[in-house]
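[agent] plan:
  1. take the single chain provided in the ticket
  2. run structure prediction with default settings
  3. attach structure tokens to the ticket
  4. add a short note for the reviewer (M.T.)
[agent] executing step 1
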Amino acid sequence: MSNLLSSSIGRKLLMSLSGLFLITFLVVHLSINLLLLIPDGGEAFNVAANFMALPLIKFGLQPVLALGFIVHIAYGAILTAKNNKARGNNKYASGNNTKEVMWASKNMAVLGVTILAFLAVHMVDYWIPLQITHAVGSVTIGGVEMHDTYSLVAANFQNPLKVVLYVIGSLGLAVHLTHGFWSAFQTLGASNTIWRKRWTVIGTVFAWVVSLGFCVIAIAMYACGSCC
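[agent] step 2 finished; step 3 output follows
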């Protein structure tokens, strides 16, 4: 088992599995964030956010999610370093066979660092106030007192710089996924000449739908707050 995880194939397998796990998280995260757009004063979003703060989620799924990020980032860095060293001056010569994702393939490391930086800012803005310092107000909905996460998000999205950074991070995620999505399935053996093209199309559509979804939320929250 240790030999598998230390081999090139093993590393790619861990990258693929952790990537698909994080893709699932993105779908859940976007679904919850879309509740921000419901004109109910943030009730639906606060209820969903409170559910995600339950002990089973907080102490069960959150550590697993954190592990998924760590594995994906660590093995991504290892694979990038080893690939660059092995290819030398012939980097990405094989990319000629994948022209539609050529730019993403060549810049996965840069895109990864961009997303990592965005993730760090995201944790400072939300995870630390909610989980560590508890520097956030409370609200009572249906007789249950909970963090007023909606107000925290709304306040952050009134900062135009944060909105711009959020949009940039979301767009970087889209480009990252256009390569990562089909690559994960290829590594798992669920790809051939026909399905390679299909996964590319599916991945591109998924990447931009998710990315633009996050962008629309940020811009809409900023516009709504500016008008109020």
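[agent] step 4 note for reviewer: Residues 145 and 197 are 49 Å apart (CA to CA).
[agent] ticket updated
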